[in-house]
Design a protein that fits this description.
Layout: H1 10-23, E1 33-35, E2 42-45, E3 50-59, H2 71-87, E4 92-102, H3 108-125, E5 128-136, E6 141-151, E7 167-171, H4 176-193, H5 205-212, H6 218-226, E8 233-236, H7 241-252, E9 255-259, H8 267-275, H9 280-286, E10 293-297, H10 302-305, E11 311-318, E12 324-327, E13 333-335
Parallel strand pairs: 4-5, 9-12
Antiparallel strand pairs: 1-2, 2-3, 3-6, 4-6, 7-10, 7-11, 8-10, 9-11, 12-13
This protein binds adenosine-5'-diphosphate and magnesium ion.
């Protein structure tokens, strides 16, 4: 199996390189495993419909900071993130399992807060908590949510499937969760240095909310079904639109052309990006955790979405395989780099 002789640092591979490396040695053995690794959720065939399964974990100090993340919101966010991956397959989320690891820093009341958030999300997305596992943890909080869903076999939507000239559509707006995090981290620093100062978060309510309590776009899946639109490919925005464009392009064997002036960015996101000395478009493309949906549709479906306030055509697929370009307002073309979240940095 693995035949490495020398020590290799994980940051040399990066998150996606590591996943590819470890999973390339595994082959599916069961015919029910229709599609395993490499999409937002695994696709399983147990009967009339496909079953979808996906899991996500949240580790204190890596994925969240409890100095500013309310436990209730954290529980909600963990469920939303898992449900979002089922939606990204054009699926209907049905059940979740929750694993939790708790250090002795946490009281019953704290755990109740986390589960209140989980319950609010269960009601919002109409999913059932059907199990999980509980353990102590040497340090900090660990939370993992597995989501299960289903989809009609002829409606399952993979990351692959986009063809040249398909339109690239984004729901909601992007970059807010990332700028919200920048604000929270800045206010934390101010508070640590000047505990007498109260953080001023109210005027950043939208972007801070995007970071602390994001929503999965189950509503969009319903709208697509009502409008009889079957996307040709789809992914959810967890690592950032730039990174997700690369995933769709790589798996579909197409390139993408994206127009900067079409990127849906909330004014709060734009203002804060400028304040932080960032280009708003770059912040929006690289910021993660918006949990919006990014998908491609046939040109013939354009009429069905063109007036929808929550769906924006940001570009189209091209025959230039592996070329992902951002066309600026002045007509210049830049390569879209897939930065994503850099785990395993030294
Ligand atoms: P997402 O951001 O949509 O949750 P990821 O980038 O985390 O997707 O994962 C991409 C694919 O790799 C998924 O199919 C996921 O199940 C798989 N994967 C991630 N980590 C592992 C692992 N440690 N072992 C096996 N498969 C993994
Ligand atoms: Mg995903």
């Amino acid at each position: 199996m693995f035949e490495n002789q020398r020590r290799t640092e994980l940051h040399d591979l990066g998150e996606f390189g590591l996943i590819e490396h470890i999973t390339s040695y595994f082959k599916n053995q069961n015919k029910e495993s229709v599609f395993g690794i490499g999409d937002d959720a695994a696709v399983l065939d147990f009967g009339e419909k496909y079953t979808l399964v996906s899991t996500d974990h949240f580790i204190e100090g890596i994925h969240f900071d409890l100095t500013f993340h309310p436990l209730r919101h954290l529980g909600y966010k963990a469920v939303a993130a898992a449900v979002s991956d089922i939606c990204a397959m054009n699926g209907n989320p049905l059940q979740i399992l929750v694993n939790i690891g708790l250090s002795n820093r946490f009281s019953l009341e704290a755990v109740e807060e986390i589960y209140s958030g989980i319950q609010i999300a269960c009601e919002k997305y109409a999913v059932d908590l059907i199990g999980g596992d509980t353990s102590s943890s040497p340090r900090g909080l660990y939370l993992s949510v597995t989501a299960i869903g289903c989809v009609d076999k002829d409606k399952v939507t993979y990351r692959k499937g986009a063809e040249a000239n398909d339109l690239l559509v984004l729901t909601g707006d992007i970059g807010g969760a990332y700028m919200g995090l920048q604000i929270l981290e800045r206010e934390k620093k101010v508070f640590m240095e000047h505990p007498e100062m109260q953080p001023d978060l109210e005027r950043h309510d939208y972007i801070v909310g995007r970071q602390l309590r994001p929503d999965a776009r189950k509503d969009v899946i319903q709208i697509l079904a009502e409008k009889e639109i079957l996307p040709t490919s789809m992914i959810d925005v967890s690592d950032g639109v730039a990174s997700e464009i690369h995933h769709l392009g790589k798996q579909s064997g197409v390139g993408f052309q994206v127009f900067e002036n079409k990127l849906p960015i909330d004014p709060q996101t734009v203002e804060r990006a400028i304040e932080f000395g960032l280009n708003p478009s770059i912040a929006a493309l690289n910021g993660g955790e918006d949990y919006e949906l990014l998908f491609t549709i046939k040109q013939g479906d354009y009429e069905k979405i063109k007036h929808h306030p929550d769906m924006t055509v940001i570009g189209h697929a091209t025959e230039l395989v592996g070329k992902y370009n951002l066309i600026t307002e002045s007509g210049n073309s830049f390569e879209i780099q897939a930065q994503g979240w850099q785990h395993f940095q030294g």
